[in-house]
Specification:
The two termini are 34 Å apart. The protein has 4 helices and 9 strands. The protein is α+β, with helices and mostly antiparallel strands. The strands form 2 sheets. Strands 5-6-7-9-8 form a 5-stranded antiparallel β-sheet. The longest helix has 21 residues. It is globular, with a radius of gyration of 18 Å. The N terminus is likely disordered.
Length: 200
């Protein structure tokens, strides 16, 4: 059983994400819509066929991987599919998605993660040779709501960049003292040790 919820993030203030919240706490992203548009966008399309496909497990990316929802595909292999983002930052903006459902990095098998990266790496190089405007490339993965993940199936953005384009990542980029960085690195290493211990 599940109930529908709506989520709005500060990073995307004009977009509302409708999701299924399951009794066990899982949440599947289903659709998004903008305040300034009457159109409803479901991942990569809004056809009745896609509605039916998404209704099965609540995941548009799984439906695309099964060939049950429309997408403009640029690469597909046994474990990964890559297609055009429906709302691209710039022309050529791609999503690289594992076919096996994984909500986030915690659920993603390492072999699938390696293949996602390999495909994204190749596509980033391809964009520079494509004729599209591409002076640089961002690889961006949002893991969790706090990181502005909107569709809860792991996906890696491959975004062609050029001087003056509209994409921005804002932060406080001040240098930190070495002592503080050393302390933080020790905490991260403890996390790695805990991860290694859990996998034994």
């Amino acid at each position: 059983m599940y109930r529908a919820i709506e989520v709005q993030t500060d990073a995307f203030p004009t977009t509302i994400i409708t999701a299924r919240l399951h009794e066990d706490g899982r949440r599947d992203g289903i659709r998004s819509r903008s305040h300034d548009s009457s159109d409803v966008v479901i991942g990569t399309g809004t056809s009745e066929r896609e509605e039916a496909a998404v209704a099965g497990d609540g995941c548009i990316f799984c439906a695309i991987g099964r060939g049950e929802a429309d997408a403009s595909i640029v690469h597909e292999d046994d474990s990964v599919i890559a297609f055009m983002d429906l709302r691209p930052v710039n022309p050529g903006h791609l999503l690289v998605v594992p076919k096996t459902h994984a909500v986030g990095l915690e659920d993603l098998q390492e072999d699938d993660g390696v293949q996602v990266w390999k495909v994204a790496h190749r596509l980033g190089r391809a964009l520079r040779r494509s004729g599209l405007r591409c002076e640089g490339v961002n690889l961006l993965l949002a893991d969790g709501e706090a990181a502005f993940q909107e569709v809860f199936h792991v996906h890696l953005h491959v975004i062609p960049r050029f001087a003056g384009d509209p994409f921005r990542i804002g932060a406080d980029w001040r240098d930190h003292e070495r002592e503080q960085l050393d302390e933080t690195s020790a905490v991260v290493r403890s996390g790695l040790a805990a991860l290694d211990a859990s996998q034994r």
